[in-house]
Specification:
- The structure is a single chain.
- This protein is mainly alpha-helical.
- Helix 12 packs parallel to helix 14 and helix 14 packs parallel to helix 16.
- It is globular, with a radius of gyration of 24 Å.
- The N and C termini lie far apart (62 Å).
- InterPro entries: TPR-like_helical_dom_sf (IPR011990), TPR_rpt (IPR019734), Ycf3 (IPR050498).
- This is Tetratricopeptide repeat protein.
Length: 331
């Protein structure tokens, strides 16, 4: 007993430090436990307020949960006390999400000027290319016309039908939209997709190729063509276009979801998982396809618990998902 007491007296108490809190915060973030991550990272900052990395990581959590202004406050606070170069790229990313593209471009340029060989160099260059593309993209300018309200009403109805794969119901409405809004490219993209999934595969491919040649590098066309070629087993054409899409990172949430779903539908589950985890869940609430294909993706890469959670969450938000077959229910 005396020996055991002496041995116990020699044990040193564990006192967690900032690095310990930081590592716990990062692990929680990787598991998408964002509230826990915020608590751990806040403890790390309280323990060591001078370390810019801790505040930057907390800003990343805020970005992931759509709290862009809080993220920017943290990053600007870091820059007031320390020229921590990564902050410029993180600010550029946040301003892009907020739609402040000129501010985003400014910070991306600053990052590359200060750290041309930096960790985020490739991402910063890609972000600048996307911003230039967005500023020039006439597809989004079309939405500023006076007929916007009527178009949006139609679009919401068609979107619901397409999300629920009610292609036959969607086609008559799309025909009306083509008559009323013949210059709106989004309507033509939707029409091509509806044609494909109602059996007119070659007509759909021809239409989407025509749009692609007219517009140039249309992301919507590339996404549709990737799906069409994959399902039509046109392997060479599919490989060419999917290899381009793998390097595309859209700014708009709708396009991020479309691209992630496309990667999942074409069996690129590892790529799809990385894309899905970058999407702000708050922006994806209205998309049945997000929950369905994120769940399917997780199931195929072995994250079965997350797959079930996503499916159940999707069923709560979209009753129609209950009529779909979960991957673990397939025979």
């Amino acid at each position: 007993m005396n020996k055991q007491r002496k041995k116990a007296n020699k044990l040193l108490p564990f006192i967690p430090n900032a690095e310990f809190y930081f590592s716990k915060g990062v692990k929680a973030f990787q598991k998408q436990r964002f509230d826990q991550s915020v608590r751990w990272l806040t403890k790390a900052i309280d323990s060591d307020p001078t370390n810019p990395l801790y505040k930057c990581q907390l800003s990343v959590v805020y970005t992931e949960t759509g709290k862009y202004h809080r993220a920017n406050q943290l990053l600007n606070h870091v820059l007031q006390n320390n020229d921590y170069v990564d902050c410029y790229y993180l600010l550029a990313n946040n301003y892009a999400h907020l739609g402040l593209l000129n501010d985003s471009m400014k910070y991306a340029k600053t990052y590359l000027e200060k750290e041309p060989e930096g960790e985020f160099g490739e991402e910063a260059e890609m972000l600048m290319e996307l911003i230039e593309f967005e500023l020039e993209d006439e597809e989004f300018d079309d939405w500023l016309l006076e007929e916007e309200d009527d178009l949006l009403k139609y679009q919401e109805t068609v979107f619901y039908m397409m999300e629920n794969e009610e292609w036959q119901k969607a086609i008559p409405l799309i025909h009306e939209m083509l008559l009323l809004f013949p210059d709106h490219l989004v309507v033509r993209h939707d029409y091509a997709q509806a044609l494909f999934y109602t059996g007119e595969e070659q007509k759909a491919i021809d239409l989407e190729m025509k749009i692609f040649k007219e517009v140039g590098n249309s992301l919507h066309s590339m996404i549709n063509l990737a799906l069409f070629y994959y399902e039509a087993e046109q392997h060479e054409a599919y490989e060419k276009i999917i290899n381009e899409l793998i390097h595309v990172y859209p700014l708009h949430a709708d396009q991020q979801i479309k691209l992630a779903v496309t990667m999942a539908k074409t069996g690129n589950y590892d790529v799809a998982y990385r894309r899905f985890t970058r999407i702000n869940r708050g922006m994806a609430r209205g998309h049945l396809s997000f929950y369905k294909w994120f769940s399917i993706t997780c199931y195929h890469i072995g994250k079965k618990e997350l797959a079930i959670d996503l499916w159940e969450d999707g069923c709560l938000k979209h009753r129609a998902l209950q009529d779909h077959v979960a991957p673990w229910q397939e025979s």
